[in-house]
Amino acid sequence: MTIGPRLPGKVALVTGAASGIGAATATAFAEHGASVVVTDVNDNLGHTVADRITAAGGEAIYLRLDTTDEDHWIAAVAETLVKYGQLDVLANIAGVAERRSDGKGLVKIEDATVESWNKVFAVNATGVFLGVKHVIAPMRAGGGGSIINISSIYGIVGSGGGAAYHSSKGAVRTFSKSAAIQYAGDKIRVNSVHPGFVDTPMTAATHESPENAAPRLAVTPLGRFGVPEDIAMGCLFLASDESAWMTGAELVIDGGMVAQ
Asked: Which of 62, 84, 154, 165 is catalytic?
């Protein structure tokens, strides 16, 4: 059993870290001794998360990072190396979902547009690819690392809408396996995390609606929605050396939903 900090001396870059699962993961990493690069496109909230970490005695900086922009990735990795001299952990957490105009429920395939499809894929799939691409070299130079890609239970099973979201998260699932095999020889581990129904800003509109929330709770055996910290603890395990013999795996954290 690990006693004390689980990430001492490690440097972690977290995307989508201004709120929700990203913020909880960045905070958990810092609490366990990592220097954390908090990244997002919401500068105000991103700075708030980094400031909260440092106020609590941790080490963090905020960088603006549009995960769909390769130049942003190049700059963020370079700034991380200038500041900390290494990069040991990447948590690709930034994500978006395609929703109806009223914010409740997911879009059916026949009602989706090419533009919305491409937007979801740009963030959820291309952004993950770009992050992995640009951390390989510094991780290899440092003797290895851990890459954590957030997928979803909807990268494993289907639902009544949101095909772009499902497809993009399925892409993350299989991309992670491919990357895991390609870079195992460099001691770079790549795993995907599959959250179930979690209370976050992205799901707020759905979970605040009884008619939409009730069916989700009904198929969650543990009887509650997840909280960001539930997922952050899984990411902490994958970032730590406790998962040193784990790569290409799928960590499902969903209250039992896909076990049925």
From this structure: 165
